[in-house]
Amino acid sequence: MMKTAWGILVVLVLALAPCARAEDKEVTVAWSVWTGWMPFRVMDQKGFLAKRCQELGVKVKLVEFKGYLESVQAFSAGKVDACAMTSMESLQPAAAGIDSVAILVNDISNGGDGVLLRKGMKIGDLAGKTILLEEFSVSHYLLARCLAMNGVDEATVTIQNTPGDEAGKAFLTDDNVQAVATWNPHLFLAVEGGKGEVVFDSTKVPGEIVDLVIANGKVAKANPKAFQALVLAWYDAMEMFTNDATRAEAVTIMAE
């Protein structure tokens, strides 16, 4: 009789254990510095995420990466449970066998990504030139669209694999760099500083560059409230950003 009771207890414990683990799991969300993702800093610093997690009884941790593709690779390797990435980059984890689902649209690029050339250069001048960009990233995609739409064979261009932010900085600081594909604030800084011209940007391919939070589908299914907390906190941050009374503080947090 005693053995039977213990057997029932063990079965109950094993049956309940997965639920307990799901509730206790700390869901990790990777992000990197980009204008459209800066509300992550607001939701973290202002406690919006912590508040929503407390309300729903979950744990969510934002993990900031210095390099954009590093964050995508971390997600593809299963080191984080979700990642802020551009739609075409989500093909990488999917190809690696990660069940990838879109949880949240952060922004749609409308001029935030572009191809920068030195003044006087035209898109046709890129043939035979070296262009700095992050290979196989959204910048590479934008360049390919730029070349295709302007009759330039991509095979005639030399790609120098450079992280997106570093490519933008190189254009601003090294006059020998003639062409880069990058994103803001590097684009408008180059134009305002008289260092170059944006000859092609995402306004030319409307709706094609979409930034999303992509989650591991299995983790999302097991921890729906964690991702609910993330989404609610995102909109808390967006409310702070769009509210005239709090916008200045939100901008300051993101700018820093």
Give the termini separation.
67 Å
User: Which stretches are low in confidence, meaning pLDDT under 50 for 5 or more residues running?
Assistant: 1-20
According to DSSP, the number of beta strands is: 10
Instruction: Give the topology string: H per helix, E per strand.
Output: HEHHEHEHEEEHEHEHEEHHH
Beta-strand proportion: 15-25%
Rg, Å, rounded: 22 Å
Q: Output mean pLDDT.
A: 90
Number of H- or I-type helical stretches: 11
Structural class: alpha/beta
Residue share in helix: 40-55%
Strand order of the largest sheet: 2-1-3-10-4
How many strands, what sense, and barrel or not for the largest sheet? Answer: 5 strands, mixed
Global outline = globular
Would you give an account of this structure?
The chain is α/β, with parallel strands linked by helices and 256 residues long. 45% of the residues lie in helices and 23% in strands. It has eleven helices and ten strands. The strands form three sheets. Strands 2-1-3-10-4 form a five-stranded mixed β-sheet, sandwiched between helices. The radius of gyration is 22 Å and the shape is globular. The model is unreliable at 1-20 (pLDDT under 50).
